[in-house]
Amino acid sequence: MDYIALKHTHMAFALLSVTLFYTRSISRLVSGKIASKKAVFIASHGTDTLLLISAVYLAVMAGLTPSTQPWLMEKIILVFGYIGLGLVIAKSKQKTKQICALLGATIIIAAIGYLAGTKSAFIL
Fold first, then answer.
1. CA 51 to CA 38: how far, in whole Å?
2. Distance of alpha carbon 100 from the chain centroid
3. For a surface tag, which of 16, 100, 107, 117 has the fewest beta carbons within 10 Å of its beta carbon?
4. Can you tell me where the transmembrane regions are (predicted)?
5. CA distances (Å), 21 to each of 17, 56, 101, in order?
6. Over the stretch 20-63, which tens digit does the pLDDT of each residue have?
7. CA–CA distance from 38 to each of 24, 49, 51, 98, 105 (Å)?
8. CA distances to 47, 62, 75, 106, 123 from 111, in Å
9. Neighbours of 60 (CB within 10 A)
10. pTM (predicted TM-score)
11. What is the pLDDT of residue 122?
12. What is the 3-state secondary structure (H, E, C) of the chain?
């Protein structure tokens, strides 16, 4: 697969991942019916796995490493934060905590998109 095709594949997985994340998160806030379905759980985790594989493949193909690309290191750190906030949404029974975590995850998603688009680090 060439670089452009892989990049578009990665972007499609990212869009699907975010869509499934919001579907599950909002479902938990409202009723939990969709979030509790096994098919949604499997689709979400399968998409995230393919997103990770495509990200690693893209970095290898482009010769990028987090130690030499500060924006990539920041993106990886933000992904861990996003995962952590997703766990808060999934495990917490308090709606206020879930909403705050969802807002935090939304900010992180925007920051990840910015880093991916500009390749310009915020801090590092």
1. 20
2. 17
3. 117
4. 6-27, 39-60, 72-90, 99-117
5. 6, 21, 12
6. 999 999 999 998 788 788 898 899 999 999 999 999 999 999 99
7. 11, 16, 20, 21, 23
8. 20, 21, 8, 9, 12
9. 10
10. 0.88
11. 84
12. CCHHHHHHHHHHHHHHHHHHHHHHHHHHHHCCCCCCCHHHHHHHHHHHHHHHHHHHHHHHHHCCCCCCCHHHHHHHHHHHHHHHHHHHHHHCCCHHHHHHHHHHHHHHHHHHHHHHHHCCCCCC
Residue with tokens 């939990």: 32
The tokens for 29 are 């806030």
Q: Give the number of residues written for the chain.
A: 124
Give the Cα separation of 107 and 33 in Å (integer). 26
Boundaries of every domain in the chain: 1-63, 65-124
